[in-house]
Amino acid sequence: MDRIMETAIEADPKLPIIRITRDFAATPEQLFRAHTDPALFAQWAGPDRLTTRIEHWDARTGGSWRYVAVDGDAEYWFHGCFHEVRQDRIVQTFTFEGEPDGVTLETQTLEDLGDGRTRLHAQSLVDSFEGRDAILRSGMEVGVDEGYAKLERMIIDGAV
Amino acid sequence: MDRIMETAIEADPKLPIIRITRDFAATPEQLFRAHTDPALFAQWAGPDRLTTRIEHWDARTGGSWRYVAVDGDAEYWFHGCFHEVRQDRIVQTFTFEGEPDGVTLETQTLEDLGDGRTRLHAQSLVDSFEGRDAILRSGMEVGVDEGYAKLERMIIDGAV
User: Fold this and answer.
1) Stretch among A4-18, B86-100, B140-154 having the lowest mean pLDDT
2) What sign has the CA pseudo-torsion B7, B13, B18, B21?
3) Which segments of the protein form a coiled coil according to its record (chains A, B) (predicted)?
4) Which of A78, A82, A84 is the mutation pick for testing B, counting most B CBs within 10 A?
Protein backbone atom coordinates (compact mmCIF):
# COMPACT_ATOMS: atom_id res chain seq x y z
CA MET A 1 0.00 0.00 0.00
CA ASP A 2 1.20 3.44 -0.92
CA ARG A 3 1.54 5.42 2.31
CA ILE A 4 2.67 8.99 2.66
CA MET A 5 3.62 9.67 6.27
CA GLU A 6 4.83 13.24 5.91
CA THR A 7 4.10 16.23 3.76
CA ALA A 8 5.38 15.85 0.20
CA ILE A 9 6.05 19.18 -1.53
CA GLU A 10 7.23 19.17 -5.13
CA ALA A 11 7.73 21.65 -7.93
CA ASP A 12 6.48 20.40 -11.30
CA PRO A 13 9.39 20.20 -13.79
CA LYS A 14 7.33 21.53 -16.74
CA LEU A 15 4.55 23.64 -15.21
CA PRO A 16 4.59 26.62 -12.81
CA ILE A 17 2.93 24.49 -10.15
CA ILE A 18 3.70 23.37 -6.60
CA ARG A 19 2.03 20.14 -5.51
CA ILE A 20 1.59 19.13 -1.90
CA THR A 21 0.36 15.74 -0.72
CA ARG A 22 -0.40 14.83 2.87
CA ASP A 23 -2.29 11.93 4.46
CA PHE A 24 -4.44 12.48 7.53
CA ALA A 25 -6.14 10.07 9.93
CA ALA A 26 -9.39 11.94 9.33
CA THR A 27 -12.42 11.66 7.10
CA PRO A 28 -12.89 13.90 4.06
CA GLU A 29 -15.69 15.62 6.01
CA GLN A 30 -13.29 16.48 8.84
CA LEU A 31 -10.69 17.91 6.44
CA PHE A 32 -13.39 19.84 4.60
CA ARG A 33 -14.46 21.43 7.91
CA ALA A 34 -10.85 22.21 8.81
CA HIS A 35 -10.47 24.12 5.51
CA THR A 36 -13.83 25.92 5.45
CA ASP A 37 -14.72 26.70 9.10
CA PRO A 38 -12.87 29.95 9.85
CA ALA A 39 -12.46 29.23 13.58
CA LEU A 40 -10.83 25.86 12.79
CA PHE A 41 -8.75 27.17 9.88
CA ALA A 42 -7.32 29.99 12.01
CA GLN A 43 -6.09 27.45 14.59
CA TRP A 44 -3.88 25.42 12.25
CA ALA A 45 -2.96 27.41 9.12
CA GLY A 46 0.58 28.72 8.76
CA PRO A 47 3.83 28.41 10.70
CA ASP A 48 3.86 28.05 14.50
CA ARG A 49 5.23 31.52 15.20
CA LEU A 50 2.32 33.28 13.47
CA THR A 51 -1.22 33.82 14.71
CA THR A 52 -4.01 33.92 12.14
CA ARG A 53 -6.87 36.39 12.57
CA ILE A 54 -9.74 36.12 10.07
CA GLU A 55 -11.12 39.43 8.82
CA HIS A 56 -13.64 38.06 6.32
CA TRP A 57 -14.60 34.49 5.43
CA ASP A 58 -17.38 33.22 3.20
CA ALA A 59 -16.38 29.69 2.17
CA ARG A 60 -18.99 29.15 -0.52
CA THR A 61 -18.69 28.97 -4.31
CA GLY A 62 -18.41 32.64 -5.30
CA GLY A 63 -17.49 33.79 -1.78
CA SER A 64 -14.26 35.42 -0.63
CA TRP A 65 -11.85 35.61 2.30
CA ARG A 66 -9.21 37.83 3.91
CA TYR A 67 -7.00 37.18 6.92
CA VAL A 68 -3.91 38.48 8.61
CA ALA A 69 -1.00 36.47 9.99
CA VAL A 70 0.45 38.26 13.01
CA ASP A 71 4.05 37.90 14.21
CA GLY A 72 4.55 40.32 17.12
CA ASP A 73 4.26 43.77 15.57
CA ALA A 74 4.39 42.48 11.98
CA GLU A 75 1.20 41.77 10.04
CA TYR A 76 1.00 39.82 6.78
CA TRP A 77 -2.32 40.15 4.98
CA PHE A 78 -3.73 37.69 2.45
CA HIS A 79 -6.94 37.63 0.44
CA GLY A 80 -8.71 35.73 -2.30
CA CYS A 81 -12.01 34.43 -3.61
CA PHE A 82 -13.54 30.96 -3.49
CA HIS A 83 -14.09 29.79 -7.07
CA GLU A 84 -15.66 26.51 -5.96
CA VAL A 85 -16.37 24.94 -2.60
CA ARG A 86 -17.66 21.39 -2.67
CA GLN A 87 -17.20 18.45 -0.31
CA ASP A 88 -14.26 16.90 -2.20
CA ARG A 89 -12.69 19.99 -3.82
CA ILE A 90 -11.94 23.61 -2.94
CA VAL A 91 -10.65 26.00 -5.62
CA GLN A 92 -9.66 29.47 -4.52
CA THR A 93 -7.37 32.36 -5.40
CA PHE A 94 -4.63 33.60 -3.07
CA THR A 95 -2.65 36.83 -2.90
CA PHE A 96 -0.10 37.94 -0.30
CA GLU A 97 -0.80 41.65 -0.14
CA GLY A 98 2.91 42.45 0.17
CA GLU A 99 3.09 41.32 -3.50
CA PRO A 100 -0.30 42.62 -4.61
CA ASP A 101 -0.03 41.59 -8.29
CA GLY A 102 0.96 38.01 -7.50
CA VAL A 103 -1.98 35.62 -7.70
CA THR A 104 -2.01 31.87 -7.02
CA LEU A 105 -4.82 29.56 -8.07
CA GLU A 106 -5.12 26.92 -5.32
CA THR A 107 -6.91 23.61 -5.83
CA GLN A 108 -7.36 21.29 -2.87
CA THR A 109 -8.77 17.83 -3.46
CA LEU A 110 -9.79 15.37 -0.75
CA GLU A 111 -9.20 11.75 -1.71
CA ASP A 112 -11.05 9.30 0.55
CA LEU A 113 -8.63 6.45 1.37
CA GLY A 114 -11.25 4.62 3.46
CA ASP A 115 -10.89 3.53 7.11
CA GLY A 116 -11.10 7.14 8.24
CA ARG A 117 -8.08 8.26 6.26
CA THR A 118 -7.89 10.98 3.62
CA ARG A 119 -5.18 12.11 1.23
CA LEU A 120 -5.11 15.86 0.74
CA HIS A 121 -3.80 17.04 -2.65
CA ALA A 122 -3.05 20.76 -2.80
CA GLN A 123 -1.97 22.36 -6.08
CA SER A 124 -0.70 25.95 -6.38
CA LEU A 125 -0.59 27.39 -9.91
CA VAL A 126 1.08 30.71 -10.80
CA ASP A 127 1.91 32.38 -14.11
CA SER A 128 5.72 32.10 -14.09
CA PHE A 129 8.46 29.74 -12.93
CA GLU A 130 10.21 32.70 -11.27
CA GLY A 131 7.08 33.40 -9.21
CA ARG A 132 6.71 29.76 -8.30
CA ASP A 133 10.34 29.46 -7.19
CA ALA A 134 10.09 32.70 -5.17
CA ILE A 135 7.17 31.16 -3.25
CA LEU A 136 9.26 28.06 -2.50
CA ARG A 137 12.17 30.25 -1.31
CA SER A 138 9.84 32.35 0.90
CA GLY A 139 9.68 29.71 3.61
CA MET A 140 6.35 28.36 2.39
CA GLU A 141 7.43 24.77 3.13
CA VAL A 142 7.90 25.50 6.83
CA GLY A 143 4.44 27.05 7.01
CA VAL A 144 2.87 24.09 5.24
CA ASP A 145 4.69 21.50 7.38
CA GLU A 146 3.99 23.22 10.69
CA GLY A 147 0.41 24.00 9.70
CA TYR A 148 -0.43 20.40 8.80
CA ALA A 149 1.28 19.19 12.00
CA LYS A 150 -1.04 21.47 13.99
CA LEU A 151 -4.02 20.17 12.04
CA GLU A 152 -2.95 16.60 12.79
CA ARG A 153 -2.80 17.35 16.52
CA MET A 154 -6.28 18.91 16.35
CA ILE A 155 -7.57 15.75 14.68
CA ILE A 156 -5.98 13.53 17.36
CA ASP A 157 -7.45 15.81 20.06
CA GLY A 158 -10.93 15.54 18.51
CA ALA A 159 -11.04 19.29 17.83
CA VAL A 160 -12.06 18.91 14.15
CA MET B 1 5.32 53.10 -33.13
CA ASP B 2 4.13 49.63 -32.28
CA ARG B 3 0.51 49.38 -33.41
CA ILE B 4 -1.73 46.36 -33.11
CA MET B 5 -4.73 46.75 -35.42
CA GLU B 6 -6.34 43.37 -34.82
CA THR B 7 -6.62 40.86 -32.05
CA ALA B 8 -3.35 39.01 -31.37
CA ILE B 9 -3.86 35.60 -29.75
CA GLU B 10 -0.81 33.55 -28.83
CA ALA B 11 -0.01 30.43 -26.86
CA ASP B 12 3.07 30.80 -24.66
CA PRO B 13 5.74 28.25 -25.71
CA LYS B 14 6.79 27.44 -22.12
CA LEU B 15 3.76 28.17 -19.94
CA PRO B 16 0.12 26.94 -20.05
CA ILE B 17 -1.00 30.45 -20.93
CA ILE B 18 -2.93 32.12 -23.75
CA ARG B 19 -2.20 35.83 -24.24
CA ILE B 20 -4.50 38.16 -26.12
CA THR B 21 -3.65 41.74 -27.07
CA ARG B 22 -6.05 44.20 -28.67
CA ASP B 23 -5.96 47.98 -29.11
CA PHE B 24 -9.12 50.02 -28.80
CA ALA B 25 -9.92 53.65 -29.62
CA ALA B 26 -11.26 54.04 -26.10
CA THR B 27 -10.01 55.21 -22.72
CA PRO B 28 -9.10 52.75 -19.95
CA GLU B 29 -12.24 53.96 -18.12
CA GLN B 30 -14.43 52.96 -21.09
CA LEU B 31 -12.86 49.51 -21.34
CA PHE B 32 -13.16 49.05 -17.58
CA ARG B 33 -16.90 49.84 -17.83
CA ALA B 34 -17.30 47.45 -20.78
CA HIS B 35 -15.80 44.64 -18.67
CA THR B 36 -17.54 45.35 -15.36
CA ASP B 37 -21.01 46.70 -16.23
CA PRO B 38 -23.15 43.59 -16.81
CA ALA B 39 -25.50 45.26 -19.29
CA LEU B 40 -22.55 46.38 -21.43
CA PHE B 41 -20.63 43.11 -21.06
CA ALA B 42 -23.65 41.05 -22.18
CA GLN B 43 -23.85 43.10 -25.41
CA TRP B 44 -20.36 42.33 -26.71
CA ALA B 45 -18.94 39.19 -25.07
CA GLY B 46 -18.67 36.02 -27.13
CA PRO B 47 -19.30 35.04 -30.74
CA ASP B 48 -22.01 36.70 -32.84
CA ARG B 49 -24.33 33.71 -32.93
CA LEU B 50 -24.66 33.55 -29.11
CA THR B 51 -26.70 35.74 -26.81
CA THR B 52 -25.38 36.36 -23.31
CA ARG B 53 -27.78 36.48 -20.37
CA ILE B 54 -26.32 37.44 -16.99
CA GLU B 55 -27.60 35.45 -14.03
CA HIS B 56 -25.41 36.96 -11.34
CA TRP B 57 -22.79 39.73 -11.49
CA ASP B 58 -20.90 41.43 -8.69
CA ALA B 59 -17.80 42.96 -10.29
CA ARG B 60 -15.96 43.87 -7.10
CA THR B 61 -12.86 42.40 -5.46
CA GLY B 62 -14.22 39.25 -3.80
CA GLY B 63 -17.42 39.23 -5.86
CA SER B 64 -18.58 36.59 -8.32
CA TRP B 65 -20.45 36.11 -11.59
CA ARG B 66 -22.44 33.57 -13.61
CA TYR B 67 -23.90 33.87 -17.10
CA VAL B 68 -25.34 31.73 -19.85
CA ALA B 69 -24.59 31.95 -23.57
CA VAL B 70 -27.69 30.96 -25.54
CA ASP B 71 -27.62 29.52 -29.08
CA GLY B 72 -31.19 28.62 -30.01
CA ASP B 73 -32.11 25.77 -27.68
CA ALA B 74 -28.55 25.23 -26.48
CA GLU B 75 -27.30 26.89 -23.28
CA TYR B 76 -23.66 27.17 -22.22
CA TRP B 77 -23.18 28.22 -18.60
CA PHE B 78 -20.06 29.86 -17.18
CA HIS B 79 -19.17 31.06 -13.69
CA GLY B 80 -16.29 32.41 -11.65
CA CYS B 81 -15.21 34.80 -8.94
CA PHE B 82 -13.57 38.21 -9.11
CA HIS B 83 -10.22 38.02 -7.31
CA GLU B 84 -9.45 41.69 -7.92
CA VAL B 85 -11.28 44.49 -9.67
CA ARG B 86 -9.39 47.76 -10.00
CA GLN B 87 -9.36 50.45 -12.66
CA ASP B 88 -6.33 49.08 -14.57
CA ARG B 89 -6.60 45.34 -13.77
CA ILE B 90 -9.26 42.67 -13.42
CA VAL B 91 -8.33 39.20 -12.15
CA GLN B 92 -11.03 36.57 -12.16
CA THR B 93 -11.60 32.83 -12.38
CA PHE B 94 -13.55 31.20 -15.22
CA THR B 95 -15.18 27.80 -15.62
CA PHE B 96 -17.29 26.46 -18.49
CA GLU B 97 -19.78 24.32 -16.61
CA GLY B 98 -19.70 21.66 -19.35
CA GLU B 99 -16.15 20.97 -18.05
CA PRO B 100 -16.80 21.65 -14.36
CA ASP B 101 -13.29 20.84 -13.10
CA GLY B 102 -11.53 23.08 -15.63
CA VAL B 103 -10.59 26.44 -14.16
CA THR B 104 -8.90 29.36 -15.90
CA LEU B 105 -7.30 32.28 -14.06
CA GLU B 106 -7.93 35.35 -16.22
CA THR B 107 -5.95 38.58 -15.85
CA GLN B 108 -6.96 41.61 -17.89
CA THR B 109 -4.75 44.68 -17.82
CA LEU B 110 -5.60 48.04 -19.35
CA GLU B 111 -2.56 49.90 -20.71
CA ASP B 112 -3.25 53.57 -21.35
CA LEU B 113 -1.66 54.47 -24.74
CA GLY B 114 -2.75 58.12 -24.49
CA ASP B 115 -4.86 60.04 -27.03
CA GLY B 116 -7.94 58.04 -26.05
CA ARG B 117 -6.41 54.70 -26.95
CA THR B 118 -5.94 51.67 -24.72
CA ARG B 119 -4.18 48.36 -25.17
CA LEU B 120 -6.03 45.47 -23.55
CA HIS B 121 -3.83 42.58 -22.38
CA ALA B 122 -5.77 39.44 -21.47
CA GLN B 123 -3.96 36.42 -20.02
CA SER B 124 -5.58 33.01 -19.48
CA LEU B 125 -3.68 30.58 -17.23
CA VAL B 126 -4.61 26.92 -16.81
CA ASP B 127 -2.87 23.98 -15.14
CA SER B 128 -1.89 21.92 -18.21
CA PHE B 129 -0.80 22.39 -21.82
CA GLU B 130 -3.47 19.88 -22.89
CA GLY B 131 -6.17 22.01 -21.24
CA ARG B 132 -4.77 25.17 -22.79
CA ASP B 133 -4.68 23.65 -26.29
CA ALA B 134 -8.22 22.26 -25.88
CA ILE B 135 -9.42 25.82 -25.18
CA LEU B 136 -7.71 27.04 -28.36
CA ARG B 137 -9.31 24.22 -30.38
CA SER B 138 -12.76 24.94 -28.90
CA GLY B 139 -13.33 27.94 -31.16
CA MET B 140 -12.30 30.41 -28.49
CA GLU B 141 -10.49 32.58 -31.05
CA VAL B 142 -13.69 33.20 -33.02
CA GLY B 143 -15.50 34.24 -29.85
CA VAL B 144 -12.70 36.59 -28.87
CA ASP B 145 -12.42 38.14 -32.35
CA GLU B 146 -16.15 38.61 -32.83
CA GLY B 147 -16.63 39.81 -29.27
CA TYR B 148 -13.96 42.51 -29.54
CA ALA B 149 -15.35 43.56 -32.95
CA LYS B 150 -18.76 44.09 -31.29
CA LEU B 151 -17.11 46.05 -28.49
CA GLU B 152 -15.33 48.22 -31.06
CA ARG B 153 -18.63 49.01 -32.77
CA MET B 154 -20.18 49.92 -29.41
CA ILE B 155 -17.28 52.30 -28.76
CA ILE B 156 -17.71 53.92 -32.21
CA ASP B 157 -21.46 54.21 -31.55
CA GLY B 158 -20.85 55.89 -28.19
CA ALA B 159 -22.58 53.05 -26.32
CA VAL B 160 -19.73 52.54 -23.81
Assistant:
1) A4-18
2) negative
3) none
4) A84
Percent of chain A with pLDDT over 70: 97
Instruction: With CA atoms as reference, report the closest residue to A78 among A96, A91, A61, A99.
Output: A96
ipTM metric = 0.94
CB A138 within 8 A of CB A126: no
Q: Are A18 and A11 in contact (CB under 8 A)?
A: yes
CA-nearest residue to A82 within chain B is B81
A60 at interface of B, judged by CB pairs closer than 8 A: no
One-letter amino acid for residue A65 of the chain? W
What predicted TM-score, i.e. pTM, was given to this entire model? 0.95
Q: Which residues contact B39 (CB under 8 A, 6 or more apart)?
A: none
In the structure, what pLDDT confidence band is assigned to residue B5 with cuts at 50, 70 and 90?
A: low
CA–centroid distance for A93 within its chain: 11
What's the domain range around B70? 7-156
Task: Please indicate, yes or no, if residue B54 is contained in any of the structural domains.
Answer: yes
| Contacts B101 to A, Cβ<8 Å | 89
Domain count, chain B: 1
CATH number at residue B140: 3.30.530.20
- Per-residue pLDDT of A113-143, as tens digits, reads 999 999 999 999 999 999 999 999 988 899 9
**Helix extents (H) in chain A:** 28-36, 38-44, 129-137, 140-156
